[in-house]
Amino acid sequence: MSAINITDLAGAVYSSGRVFDGLATGRLDTENFLRSGSLAGVSSRSDLALLEDLRDVAQFIIDHHDRAIDATYVRAVNAQITRSGALHPGQLRTEDQQIGVHTRHGRHTPPALTEDGLQQLIASLTCEDVTEHALDLFVELAKAQPFEDGNKRTALFVANSLLIGGGRMLVVPVDENDPQLSDTFNDLLAKAYLRGEHDAVKDLLREHGLIDLPR
């Protein structure tokens, strides 16, 4: 892998923060924060905590890009990404917590996964094409909701763990000039959750989510 640094992953940091967690900090200010720690444009403690977690998980996947993706790795990614927000970073949720997600198509509350169950889910995704494998990982991990918090962010950065070695990155579709794009993405992801319709959200990600990293 050609050397990449944390600012190369600014697109994943910004888009996941913006779409999944309402990050108010702009794209350029996010890049400057990753590059130099500048707090210009960071207007709240919650944004700062979110950016710090996303910065650290981006560095984590860069440092561990050659590590096999298994349940232990996925839990480690979640621990990085929810350090400031979750009560139990990296810990799998339990059935009695009844943690789910509200969507415009209804509530999605999948069964809780054990460590073995998470490992089986990961092992079941065997596409030889790295990009397609990464897209499957993103959708299936997000849909499974294994953790108390940060499931979509975890899924995105686990998918990027596969991609960055080949010089690509997966971002959440977002366009400041077209709010409909991220709205469509959220709608299609909800349909993947509740109806098992995975192809449409993966098509959108292929068109608007895959980016070549700087060489």
Give structural notes.
Helix content is 54%, strand content 6%. It is globular and about 40 Å long. A two-stranded antiparallel sheet has the order 1-2. Strands 3-4 form a two-stranded antiparallel ribbon. The longest helix is centred in the first third of the chain and has 19 residues. The protein has a single domain, classed as Fic-like fold (Orthogonal Bundle), CATH 1.10.3290.10. The protein contains nine helices and four strands. With 215 residues, the protein is mainly alpha-helical.
Provide a quick synopsis of the model:
With 215 residues, the protein is mostly helical.
CATH architectural label: Orthogonal Bundle
- Net shape: globular
N-to-C series of helices and strands: HHHHEEHHHEHHE
Low-confidence stretches: none
Class per helix and strand makeup: mainly alpha
Strand content: 5-15%
Strand runs, count: 4
CATH class group = Mainly Alpha
Q: Determine the CATH topology.
A: Fic-like fold
List the helices and strands and how they pair.
Layout: H1 10-21, H2 27-36, H3 45-63, H4 71-81, E1 101-103, E2 106-108, H5 115-123, H6 130-144, H7 151-163, E3 168-170, H8 179-195, H9 199-208, E4 210-212
Antiparallel strand pairs: 1-2, 3-4
